[in-house]
Design brief:
Layout lengths: L1 H13 L8 H14 L22 H10 L41 H31 L5 H11 L2 H7 L5 H21 L2 H15 L9 H16 L3 E3 L2 E3 L2 H38 L5 H12 L7 H16 L1 E2 L4 E2 L2 H24 L6 H22 L16 H15 L4 H24 L13 E7 L3 E8 L2 E2 L4 E10 L7 E8 L5 E9 L6 E9 L6 E10 L8 E2 L10 E8 L11 E7 L3 E9 L4 E8 L8 E7 L5 E7 L16 E7 L10 E7 L9 E2 L11 E4 L4
Parallel strand pairs: 7-14
Antiparallel strand pairs: 1-2, 3-4, 5-6, 5-13, 6-8, 8-11, 9-10, 9-12, 12-14, 15-16, 15-22, 16-17, 17-20, 18-19, 18-21, 21-23
């Protein structure tokens, strides 16, 4: 237990926060309770959920809220996802699914402190499960403590089990409660008693409040209650040494106590957990809320084809490997030979179990063995049923951890059957060595510090993987530049493999009409796993005001653009635009319009006035930004006749979209040319001017300088042809 505790605390620090499956969503569940004082509601639309784990029973999260509720948690500090992450376990790229900050390193504060405390709470649950595995082993072979000791060791030194129990996950209290239910079930089956039966009922209720998987253990509790009186009723009764065969007396002696005990394992779980399932029924029409969960997460987890033999084979392989060692978000694997060695050990243990069943050569407690076997069987039966409607995400080994303790007992018993002296100890020692070595050899290389904190999460993510073996993860550049200034562009990369010769990386600025304003190259070299950063300075000379684009690419020795893909393997068009940049005017623009107006549009824009050039038939609108804008608005000029009918019109973003409103600074003046064709024979012509969002067609409200709202959200004035 001490060795497990040290290993688990070490794993909880070595593995960055949120880098085990669903850990971030489990934390959001806890955080939602802390911040709102309510349980999250599962929404059928994926994007509308505060946490995608809202379908989980709330036991762990309610306990966690009580433990961490005193900590100030700002959701803004939650870790953002790493867009360069790939689920491919054979991927050469970096393994972290989230972008990390140095503040996560102990001692933490806020969100990170709450996260770490919850991890350590799960470590305590794991510690209790190790003790229960020992006790289950002592039940199986009462006369020899080695089976219990080996079972505890096989569980405590399973690297994957340490990895999960050192994280925030409701699988961890599930392992503890599953082991506790089986241990107490064996005691009730052997000796009865109202006290142990009542505790068993309470444990069942807590299990039902922790994870749906433990519903599979309810029949085992009923079986435990039934077994004791049935076993006793088969023994001969006697009074004054005379046998009694009156079964009415037997029913009186054992029937009513059996009924009361059945009530304990039936009603107590309902009293503890029934409110949660009744809530689900009222909210979703389903106590297990399966339909709404599948609707919300279906695009990620739902099976798209019937479960077949190929799927069964994939389930067996993936489940076995991820039961023992498959870290991170199922992305950090061990060498293949190691899984082969573990398989040899498991097959050896199973052989020992078969030998025990055949020869019955050991003094064992067959009742305890039967309950352990039933516990493992029920969990795997429910997992197989789960896999009928869930894709590979349902194959994970941790989903069977509710039976981790009894499975460790059965494996230990198999080794004991073949060799009572040293075999179990040797296997446990090998597993311990693997658990220790996994930290420096597997975990730390996958999540190296300080590399996982670079580049900053605030930077634009690019995730370009070039053929030469460089992954450009992020680009940092100024958001605006003027002609005559330098534009520094810093590229942050990561070496996927060593370079044989220096490689050329290119950054360029694209301006109005797709013209290359400036381009700069630099030579780079790197080794596998190395963090690379370089700054390319672009001298911006003459350029028209525009929303520019920074493009990044690499060229090969022939001067051709290197092929590149995204983190998920999608082929990218190179060079790739990685960031927008405002190419501002060299000097602020000021206007003296022929017709002055001063009309307000949505408290965002002011129309200062307009000009009309009869030679080119162009209306020039002079806009001024009076508030920050994030949207690209479309402006329009409609030519109206005396009947308010549109005779001509010009709609479009300012300067033909080259200088959109989202990049304007507050106070900036911008000229917006609108070409229109006017009918020559019309004397009474008016202009209607407005602003709207192209996506919705919604116009900005229009007010005159004295606050008068104009109808139809447009400003109408006569056209001066001079």
């Amino acid at each position: 237990m001490g060795a497990y505790f040290v290993l688990a605390v070490g794993y909880s620090i070595a593995v960055p926060l949120a880098e085990t499956p669903d850990e971030s969503e489990h934390f959001r569940y806890l955080q939602y309770i802390v911040l709102t004082g309510q349980l999250p509601v599962m929404q059928p639309v994926y994007e509308n959920n505060d946490t995608l784990e809202a379908h989980q029973p709330p036991g762990l999260y309610l306990l966690g809220a009580a433990l961490t509720g005193w900590i100030a948690q700002d959701p803004a500090d939650n870790l953002p996802p790493n867009s360069c992450f790939s689920f491919d376990p054979d991927d050469d790229g970096r393994q972290h699914a989230y972008l990390h900050r140095p503040e996560e390193w102990p001692p933490q504060r806020g969100v990170y402190q709450a996260f770490q405390l919850m991890r350590w709470l799960d470590v305590l649950f794991g510690l209790g499960t190790v003790w229960l595995a020992y006790q289950l082993g002592r039940q199986v072979v009462p006369g020899d403590a080695r089976v219990g000791l080996w079972a505890a060791a096989l569980l405590a030194f399973n690297p994957q089990w340490i990895h999960i129990t050192a994280s925030l996950n409701n699988d961890v209290p599930t392992t503890f409660l599953g082991a506790a239910i089986l241990y107490l079930g064996i005691r009730v089956a052997q000796s009865g008693g109202y006290g142990p039966t009542a505790v068993l009922g309470i444990l069942l209720g807590l299990g039902f409040l922790t994870k749906f998987a433990l519903l599979a253990f309810w029949p085992l509790a009923v079986l435990a209650v039934i077994h004791y009186p049935l076993s006793v009723m088969h023994e001969p009764l006697s009074v004054n040494r005379e046998p009694i065969t009156d079964y009415r007396l037997r029913i009186t002696n054992y029937g009513l106590p059996l009924f009361y005990k059945l009530l304990l394992v039936t009603l107590l779980p309902l009293l503890v957990a029934g409110w949660w399932y009744w809530r689900n029924f009222r909210l979703y029409g389903d106590p297990l809320m399966w339909d709404v969960t599948l609707a919300a997460k279906g695009s990620v987890i739902a099976r798209t084809a019937p479960f077949g033999l190929a799927d069964l084979g994939e389930l067996v392989v993936m489940h076995f490997q991820s039961y023992w060692l498959w870290f991170g978000w199922l992305t950090v694997k061990a060498p293949g030979w190691l899984y082969g060695a573990i398989l040899v050990g498991v097959v050896t243990a199973v052989t020992g179990l078969i030998y025990l069943l055949w020869r019955r050569h050991l003094p064992v407690n067959w009742l305890a063995i039967g309950f352990c076997a039933l516990g493992v069987t029920t969990i795997y039966a429910s997992l197989l049923q789960y896999a009928q409607s869930i894709n590979w995400t349902g194959y994970q080994g941790r989903l069977a951890f509710a039976a981790a303790a009894p499975l460790a007992v059965l494996l230990a018993l198999g080794f004991y059957s073949l060799n009572r002296r040293w075999l179990g100890t040797a296997v446990a020692a090998a597993l311990f060595a693997l658990a220790v070595l996994a930290v420096p050899l597997i975990i730390l290389p996958a999540f190296p510090r300080p590399q996982i904190y670079q580049p900053s999460p605030d930077l634009t993510r690019t995730c370009i993987r070039f053929a030469s073996g460089l992954q450009v993860e992020a680009v940092e550049a100024a958001t605006a530049v003027k002609p005559g200034e330098w534009l520094p562009v810093t590229v942050y990369g990561y070496g996927l493999r060593d370079t044989a010769v220096p490689q050329t990386i290119t950054a360029r600025l694209i301006g109005r009409d797709g013209q290359v304003v400036v381009q700069t190259d630099a030579l780079l070299s790197w080794s596998q796993g190395e963090i690379v950063s370089t700054t390319l300075s672009l001298p911006v000379a003459l350029a028209l005001p525009a929303r520019g684009v920074i493009e990044v690419g690499m060229v090969d020795e022939t001067g051709q653009w290197q092929a590149a893909t995204s983190a998920t393997g999608r082929v990218l068009a190179i060079p790739l635009g990685v960031q927008m940049v405002k190419i501002a005017p060299a000097r602020p623009f000021s206007a003296e319009p022929e017709v002055e107006t001063a009309v307000n549009f949505g408290d965002l824009l002011q129309l200062a006035g307009y000009d009309y050039d009869a030679a080119t038939q162009t209306v020039t609108l002079y806009w001024q930004a009076i508030a920050p804008m994030t949207a690209d608005f479309t402006t329009f000029v409609h030519v109206l006749d005396e009947n308010d009918q549109i005779m001509a019109q010009a709609d479009g973003q300012p300067q033909q979209g080259a200088y959109p409103t989202s990049i304007w600074d507050v106070g900036e003046m911008v000229a917006d040319d609108k070409p229109i064709t006017l009918p020559a024979d019309s004397d009474s012509i008016h202009l209607a001017i407005g602003v709207y969002l192209l996506a919705t067609g919604e116009r900005l409200a229009v007010h005159t300088a004295d606050g008068l709202a104009l109808p139809e959200n447009r400003f109408i004035l006569p056209l001066h042809r001079e």
